[in-house]
Amino acid sequence: MSAKELQDLLNFIASSGLDEVNIEGNDFKISVKRHSNPPTVISQPMVAQMSVPQSVQQVATVVPASVPMPIAQAEKPAEIAAGKYVTIKSPMIGTFYRASSPDKPTLAAVGDEINVGKVVCIIEAMKLFNEIESEIAGKIVKVLVENASPVEYDQELFLVEVA
């Protein structure tokens, strides 16, 4: 299976509602599982006062530390809403790397001018290192992901000021 076919498969799985996919060929076996926790529904008998027990209130406010929190809309500058900035998003699930190896310089840093087709990062998915190319030209304003951290499909990676 080629890297392009694997990338297309991962994109399809990420956009579908599937939680698990197993594929076997003559010389390979692929097993992909999505680890998502369904929302917990707590059912309480109806009471006249309609008060919520303390334990239910605490459950509702607990957020797992492993879940990446997206940038809040209120935190984004007005220029983003006006279209001055564009984000480069992850085309797949994997591990984000800013350089091709630890001893090499970063592929794209804050302040760098980028053109269409320039490699801005690498995403490792299933032991395959995929170079992610920019689809826009401009200047990188902010790197939104830490090096060597996991990323999800369609997660924002870079904030770019459009040229």
General description of the model:
With 163 residues, this protein is of the alpha+beta class. The chain has 3 helices and 10 strands, in the order H-E-E-H-H-E-E-E-E-E-E-E-E. A 4-stranded antiparallel sheet has the order 3-10-8-5. The protein has a 4-stranded antiparallel sheet with strand order 7-6-4-9, with no helix packed on it. The chain has a domain of 90 residues: OB fold (Dihydrolipoamide Acetyltransferase, E2P) (Beta Barrel).
- Number of DSSP E strands: 10
Report the end-to-end length measured between terminal Cα atoms.
Answer: 37 Å
Order of helices and strands: HEEHHEEEEEEEE
What is the typical, i.e. mean, pLDDT? 75
Highest-level CATH class of the domain at 73-162: Mainly Beta
How big a fraction of the residues is strand? 25-35%
* CATH fold category name of the domain at 73-162: OB fold (Dihydrolipoamide Acetyltransferase, E2P)
Coarse shape: elongated
Computed over alpha carbons, the radius of gyration is: 20 Å
Described by strand count, sense and barrel closure, the largest sheet is: 4 strands, antiparallel
Total count of helical runs of at least 4 residues: 3
